[in-house]
Amino acid sequence: EVQLVESGGGLVQPGGSLRLSCAAFGFTFSSSAMGWFRQAPGKEREFVGGISWSGAFTYYADSVKGRFGISRDNAKNMVYLQMDSLKPEDTAVYYCHAYVVVGRLEYSYWGQGTQVTVSS
After folding, report:
1. Most Cβ neighbours (<10 Å): which of 3, 49, 79, 115?
2. From the CB of residue 115, how many other CB atoms can be counted at a distance below 10 Å?
3. Which of 24, 54, 33 is nearest to 106 (CA)?
4. For the segment 14-61, what is each residue's pLDDT rounded down to a tens digit?
5. Residue 84 in contact with residue 19, Cβ under 8 Å?
6. Closest by alpha carbon to 74, among 116, 12, 36, 22?
7. Measuring CA to CA, how many Å separate 96 from each of 71, 87, 103, 119?
């Protein structure tokens, strides 16, 4: 069974930092691209950033570029989102995402989400 389990969310003051973690189970993590999305109240889920299977390539939404960083540890089946210089508009539920290809079939998996609140 595929599972993505996020952790590390919480309440932080503007300008602060948080590190989200996502533990992956049930698929070949080391050959799968991973990503982070977020959804604020009343808004659609939006892309935050992604990382290639090897970790060699990362890409980010313009709104977080220069402030957020994605990394992965294929030995531990973990992906991370380091968030610095947080702003109130970063407040959202953050979701881990896995893009899994098995032969010609493509699968998309989501975690349950972790709440990040940026407020003074």
Report:
1. 79
2. 12
3. 33
4. 999 999 999 999 999 999 999 999 999 999 999 999 999 999 999 999
5. no
6. 22
7. 12, 20, 23, 23
